[in-house]
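Bench notes, afternoon.
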Amino acid sequence: MGKVSGNSSDSYSMEQKTEDELWQQYRRTRDPKIRETFIKQYAPLVKYVAGKVAVGMPSNVEFDDLVGFGVFGLLDAIDKFDPDKNVKFKTYAVTRIRGAIFDELRSIDWVPRSVRQKTREVEDAIGTLEARLGRSATDQEIAGALGMGEDEYLKTMVKISGASIISIHEVWYSGDENDKVSIADSIESPVSLNPEVMAERDEIRRVIVEAISELPDNEKKILVLYYFEDLTLKEIGQVLGVTESRVSQLHTKAIMRLRARLKNSRKGIV
């Protein structure tokens, strides 16, 4: 990594250190000058994540508000980052920033009641249907269970997409308040899904990873590209050769499937 500069009287010594060394020093000393350096260096990351989240959000959600929410995530990431865990800070921070934004969005309850109700109906229909079928249900089968035509069902999936993005960041608590796992945090590079990673949060993580692995391939691919590779829905559409609207439908459906399966599994875990 390159050198990191500071604007204080200690700037000379800070310029001599690589970023890795600076993280190690910050972890030992909690020096506010080093913290300020990291805040300035990674502030653009907050705007980047807020810009991604803003896509597909209704007009009443302001970009500047998302940035404000995201700053809390950056500060949290800087304070909790462990340089010994062999994860790049940028990767870790993106997750924390996005999580902070969604925490705030949930707390202000911006999703219209009608959309929330429809989301619940779709999720319940998928859960019931797939529990009975023992496999992933098709669009036609889900539409039938909801009493809709297939076109109406696909339009509904786009309509509830904003609520579904929020729902994937909802957390399960295993034990105390500090030990929490969200579905989004469990969507990792397939290479990372090894016993060591899964053991970190034990049974809940195992069930989430298992539910993800059982999704249809195209839906699983979209989740990994969106949450791990950090692509936008439009970029994913270009990779898969489908429209952005279709990616939005598949993304929403994947989350509805996951939540339905986890709801069924959760009773046996918690």
